[in-house]
Amino acid sequence: MYGRTLEVEKTVSVEVAGRKLLWTGIGDYEHTLDQRREVANELGLPRRAAKQCSINPATCRPEEEFAMLPGMVSPFLPPLRPTRLVSVVQMLWPTAWEEQGKAVGVSLSLFESLILPLSCLRAVVLQYAAQAYAPGIHCIEVSPQDQLSQAQAA
Question: Would you give the DSSP letter of residue 47?
């Protein structure tokens, strides 16, 4: 894409204290305990709930739960589809990535992706969520681990 570095959006289903989430981020990332605690706090759950986290839980089959094709998980769910989902967690990326002009590939299907400037992704996800998700589904933004560490040290 015109010399831009391309990152890929990756989304997984997560269960925290019996609540279904979609956790999405850019490139290779891991959920840290501090980030899971931040999400638990946003959902009104006790801190200990962050330790009871399951990625791709057996209780959630994306094909059935989110009407996704087998092998695909995305924050772009079919509009207003009933689901047990309570939140979509967007893991933010370092601001330097936007300044570097990185682009991101977003899966639209198993065979199609949308490539857009990384600087647009946050607005696209938030606007889509506001229009397409059923009422009551929260969007939570989580800072990268390095920003969380700096905030806790201050």
Answer: G
